Amino acid sequence: MCGIVGYLGDGNAYNVLIGGLHRLEYRGYDSAGIALVDKKGKLNVYKTMGKVSVLENFCKDKNVDSHIGIAHTRWATHGEPSDCNAHPHYSEDGNLALVHNGTIENYKVLKDALVEHGCTFHSETDTEVLVQLIEYVRLQNDCSLLDAVREALKQVIGAYAIAVIEKNNPDCIIAARKSSPLVVGVGDDEFYLASDASPFVEFTDNVVYLKEEEIALIRRHEPLKLYSLDNKENEIDVKKLEMSISQLEKGGYPHFMLKEIFEQPATLLDCIRGRVVDHGRIVTLNGVSDNRDTFINARRIVIVACGTSWHSALIGKYLIQDMCHIPVEVEYASEFRYSHPVLTPDDIVIAISQSGETADTLAAIKIARKMGAFVYGISNVVGSSIPRETHSGTYIHVGPEIGVASTKAFTGQVMVLTLLAMTIGELKKTLSPEDVAKLGNWILKLPSLVEKVLSLAPEIERLSLIYTYARNFLYLGRGYSYPVALEGALKLKEISYIHAEGYPAAEMKHGPIALIDAEMPSVIIAPKDHLYEKIVSNVQQVKARGGSIIAVVTEGDETIRNIADHVLEVPDVPECLTPIITSVPLQLLSYYIAINKGKDVDMPRNLAKSVTVE
Ligand code: M6R
Predict the structure, then answer these.
(1) If you take atom 12 of ligand 1, which residue's CA is the nearest one?
(2) pLDDT (tens digit per residue) in 177-222
(3) What is the pLDDT of residue 160?
(4) pLDDT of 568-612, one tens digit each?
(5) Ligand 1 pocket, 361 CB below 6 A?
(6) Is 39 an annotated catalytic residue?
């Protein structure tokens, strides 16, 4: 949440910062702002409520000439979205400007102390407290900005990624992080700074990911220096970035979400590349086989995640229990962390997160590690916090997901969970080599089968017109299709703002069936699996009460076609692979309904892509 960009070099800082903010807008878009020091040593801070384009317009007639600057796009935590609460915030004497991602939990105590020392505040944010505190420390101790930042951060409880610039020293940026990501791009005698590497991918592929409680000293024409909070100089580990600019552009699609939905055949292929080989006969996840004994001897697996990742975790439960006969529990990371979890060293905790930065999931990982469990991460963003905090893990390799509504990351996560279950199953011998080969072969066919599902897009677009103005939806499924129902409902909610509930279809008769009437459409996920006969009864129960039905069915299903109002036919695949096939039409349905309603599908209201606060 919140995106930070910084630049120091001989180039035009404003252009780099505005371009970078556009790339980071997925992290929050309540307001945006920029701070630059011009050649005469004047600190110019421009900020506006709304998206980056509003800021860009606002800056059109402003002095933006600078070689140094910091910028921010906000997802509000403390104080409503407004010009005043927008970042950068600056010290009362106008010497420092600061941008911040995270929350300062003890900001009230710090603020009261600063007020006693005569500081006045203009915004409601915790960030303004931090910048005033740093300047107060600097003035009191007559010290450098680096020392002032370090001393101030020692007083802070909470999470932060910050970048600070000083009017009186326009050749230096100080950056620091704790629990919120920050990465430095090292160019040719110039530096970039950002919440992730996307803002500077076209300028450099040399990156340094800041570690927990690490401070970066970035100076003009000087090498980068890193320090710990207790002022020890840290080693610099420059990594090569594996990201291309085309992955960050819409590539002819009107929205990132649609592009990402249509990318799924390719992203699934990337996800399985090198992991399913020899015509499917060999299926391996290195993270699992490298920890063979741990997985073979696991007493229990607990999966922690949030949102869409929690839905893929539920599918993971079915996969692992089916294929490996290990009991699996799935927990919301936010509940797990406060539930006094009981874990032992022979438990495995799997943390799933697209961004690799979700605060609740990170906190759950820390608890699990403390309790001695082996922690395995499944993430998309290379170099993000979760892969660094876990003992081992797997990247889903689906490329940057920019649309706030997760699509290709969901299918990538489910794919990795399938490979994980197969690898464990083969190690434990709960799956025979023949079982693996058969399923492995199907997995190789999956990208082209998803391609086939995508050809339903025009049909789904037409169908969406009928349901655009429905006020509520039910999504129903059983077994593997139950988490798919939850995910379908979440997709609709978050981008079209239509109330939608996902339910296990059999639970319907225990309450939700009371909601069914002609105004309440049900989306029923009913592939031909071992629960097919059961779900046919559920379809009939909905129809008998006058509800309209959109059913996702296996090709050639005449039974449900004769009952439902609309059917979307998908290819027949083994039961454990149905979630990847059946979730795609639901992604398209929610996309088209949201478009019909004129909603901003890539940046839905109130949401942000990366949830780095509690
Ligand atoms: O990055 P993560 O997978 O940890 O994010 C978890 C959720 O915030 C995320 O899946 C959210 O629910 C998406 N907006 C769903 O589309």
Answers:
(1) 307
(2) 998 889 999 999 999 999 999 999 999 999 999 999 999 999 999 9
(3) 93
(4) 999 999 999 999 999 999 999 999 999 999 999 999 998 888 787
(5) yes
(6) no
What is the C-alpha to C-alpha distance for residues 36 and 55, in angstroms, rounded to an integer?
14
Rounded Cα distance between 165 and 38, Å, is 12
Listed in order, strand segments (DSSP E) in 75-179 are 89-90, 96-101, 160-166, 169-178
Question: 133 near 152, Cβ under 8 Å?
Answer: yes
What's the 164 CA to ligand 1 centre distance in angstroms?
29
CA geometry: angle 391, 395, 397, nearest 5 deg:
170
Burial of residue 96 (CB within 10 Å: 0-12, 13-18, 19+) is buried
pLDDT tens digits, 484-542: 999 999 999 999 999 999 999 999 889 989 999 999 999 999 999 999 999 999 999 99
* The pLDDT of residue 81 is above 90: no
> Which atom of ligand 1 lies at the shortest distance from residue 404's CA?
14
Residue 579 DSSP SS3? helix
Q: Residue 486: what pLDDT?
A: 98
| Protein residue closest via CA to atom 9 of ligand 1 | 307
User: Is the CB of residue 306 below 6 angstroms from any atom belonging to ligand 1?
Assistant: yes
- Any ligand 1 atom below 6 A from CB of 309: yes
Return the pLDDT at 602. 93
Q: Give the Å distance between the CA of 406 and the centre of ligand 1.
A: 7
Mutate to test the pocket of ligand 1, among 337, 350, 398, 611 (most ligand atoms within 8 A of CB): 611
Ligand 1 centroid distance, CA of 515 (Å):
28
Please tell me if the CB atom of residue 404 comes closer than 6 angstroms to any atom of ligand 1. Answer: yes
Asked whether 359 lines ligand 1 (CB < 6 A), one says: no
266-307 tens-digit pLDDT: 999 999 999 999 999 999 999 999 999 999 999 999 999 999
Residue 355 Cβ contacting ligand 1 at under 6 Å? yes
Q: List alpha helices for 142-274, DSSP H.
A: 145-154, 256-262, 264-272
485 Cα–ligand 1 center, Å: 16
Q: How far is CA 176 from CA 155, 228, 452, 486, in A?
A: 14, 9, 47, 38
Whole-Å CA distances, 173 to 7, 61, 187, 351, 512: 8, 26, 15, 34, 56
Instruction: Kindly report the pTM of this predicted structure.
Output: 0.86
Q: Report the nearest-CA residue for atom 4 of ligand 1.
A: 353
